[in-house]
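Subject: sequence -> structure tokens, single chain

Hey, anyone have a minute? Need the predicted structure for the following. Not urgent.
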Amino acid sequence: MRAASETPTEPALPSPELLAERLLPWFDANNRTELPWRRPGTTAWGVLVSEVMSQQTQVARVAPVWEAWMERWPTPADLAAAPTADVLREWGRMGYPRRALRLQECARAIAEDHGGTVPADPAELEKLPGIGNYTAAAVAVFHYGGRHAVVDTNVRRVVARLGGRADAGTATTRADLAATASLLPEDAPTAARVSLALMELGALVCTARKTECAACPLSDACGFSGQEVPAGPSRKRQRYKGTNRHVRGEVMALLRDADGPVERARIDAVWHDARMVNEAVAQLIEDGLIGTDEAGRFELPSR
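Reply:
Had a minute. Here:
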């Protein structure tokens, strides 16, 4: 019986050697090779583009856009030189189109400051426009094969459960990075494969809503094995129709499909609430996503 002064300790994480031994054969059998950016020969630029596109967007929606994008702009210099209006049109309805602008800014920085070569060092990658800690680590690991902690929602969840917790927090902390790094083998190429395998395990088996421990190669080394994910508050699907994001999307769709500049009356017709349309238009102009011509008509950026 535990003494009153004792506190329970969390289960220790498995050793990097055990993790690699169990996880990598599973990954070899379950790796989603149908994702186009995982094809042999994908460039560092292709990996970077896939990571930016996959932020807040399901990979099934990203895949066809990524393929069209890479066919049209296979190098940073190609995207850097493209008309911004074309970039926004190609982005389509993936949402959060500011990512497209940042990606073009990133391409220009790579072309101008790095001779068109995507840096391999995460510290250099983080200096690029729109590239944060996660994306920098992902490119350095998934393309260049470096040994760095790549921590997204899936990895954070898997590592938390290995340590006996039902889930992790909503944001990546230094503790999350340190815990993930402690699981990586010293050999960089092996560590890179382990990083991708941890992410795949969280996407396919150890998901947010349930744990499929019987299918998990780490079940006997996991501190949460056999336990059910505790019921939490029901997660209602976020409403989209009628939100500011919806109205912004309708304005962008109108301008993407237009053959030329659009009169204000057509903008006003995208939604019945004039206040929301005005707000959406003002935000899109501020974000650099739309502009006006000399006659005051609306269009995608011409730069």
